[in-house]
Amino acid sequence: MLEGNEVTATDTEYAIVARGVHKFYGTTEALAGLDLQVKGNSIFTLLGPNGAGKTTFLKTILGLVHFQRGDIRIFGKLTSELESRAQVGYLPERFYFYPYYTVLDTIAFFMALNGVQKKNNSEMIEKTLEMVGMSTLSKRRLSTLSKGQLQRVGVASLLVGQKKLLLLDEPFSGLDPLGTKDFKDLILKLKATEGKTIFINSHGLSEMEKIADDFAIIDKGKCLAMNSMKSLLPGVTLEDFFTNIIRGKN
Predict the structure, then answer these.
(1) 210: CB partners within 8 A, 6+ apart
(2) Collapsing DSSP states into helix, strand and coil, what is residue 210?
(3) CATH number of domain containing 162
(4) 2 belongs to a structural domain
(5) Which residues partner with 165 through β-bridges?
(6) What is the rounded distance in angstroms from the CA atom of residue 240 to the CA atom of residue 208?
(7) Is 4 within a domain?
(8) Domain extent at residue 121
(9) H or E element at residue 37
(10) SS3 string of 7-21?
C-alpha cells in the first residue's frame, strides 16, 4: 500500500481509488481491506447483499464515517483533505427538503449553499431544470411531487453545485416503471453530455446491467469482484454473476 501522502499518476485518472480500507464498529469489521477503483466520466455501481458495507463505504467517501486503516482518494486527493469533497455531490435514497418550497426555491437554496453568484442564477436554473426534465414544474411545491420528480429535484440540487462526482444511494427505490426508465435516461445523459462520474449503490441488478459501465461486488466489507459490464459472458446476466459470486460458486 502506498503511504498516505503518496499519489500516483493512475490515482489522478480515477474518480475514486480506495486501498486497503478497514472500518471497525467496535469489534465488527464493516470494511475489511476494501480495494476499489472508479473511472472518471463513467457509471459505476457497487453491489452487495444487505450489510455488505456499501453504505459504510459511501459514507467514508463523504467523510461522514472515519475509517481506521487504508486510504481513499477522490480525483487524486485524500478524503482527509476537505478539498477532496468539493467535487462530490450526494443524493440519499430519499430526497427530503422543505415541503412548502417550490422547485425553484429549492434549486435557488442549493445554488446559494454552493456559493454560485446570483447574476448566474436564472440561466443556470433554467438549464438545470431543463436537463432534469422539471422545467414545466418549477413552481410546484415539493409536497405535490411524486417520488420520481423529487429524485429529479435532488439531482438538480447536485448539478447547480457543479459537482463532478455524483453519489446516488438506491436511486431507483420506490420508483414505478416509467419513473425508473426516465431516471435511467437522466443518468445516462449526465454522463454523456455533462461528463459526470456517477457512483450508484443499488440492489437493482437489472437496472444497473443496462446503464453501468463497471461494477464491483462486495460482501462482509471485501471486494469479491470488480469488472466492466462488457466482461460478462454471453448468456450470463449480472444477476447470475452476482448470485454465483455471493454464493461462492464462481
Answers:
(1) 184
(2) helix
(3) 3.40.50.300
(4) no
(5) 88, 197
(6) 13
(7) no
(8) 9-246
(9) strand 28-39
(10) CCHHHHHEEEEEEEE
- The predicted structure's pLDDT at residue 187: 92
Higher pLDDT, 121 or 184: 184
**Is residue 3 one of the residues assigned to a domain?**
no
Q: Which amino acid is at 196?
A: K
Query: To which H or E segment does residue 43 belong?
Result: strand 43-47
What's the pLDDT at 3? 40
Residue/partner pairs of 17-21 with CB below 8 Å, 24 or more apart = 17/72, 17/73, 18/57, 18/70, 18/71, 18/72, 18/73, 19/70, 19/71, 19/72, 20/69, 20/70, 20/71, 21/57, 21/60, 21/67, 21/69, 21/70, 21/71, 21/72
| pLDDT higher at 118 or 190 | 190
Q: What is the pLDDT of residues 124-139, one digit of tens each?
A: 888 889 989 899 999 9
Domain tally for the chain?
1
pLDDT tens, position by position, 159-208: 888 889 999 998 888 888 888 898 899 999 999 998 999 999 988 898 99
Q: Quick check: 13 pLDDT over 80?
A: no
Question: Which of 94, 30, 89, 26 minimizes the C-alpha distance to 61?
Answer: 89
Residue carrying C-alpha cell 469479491: 224
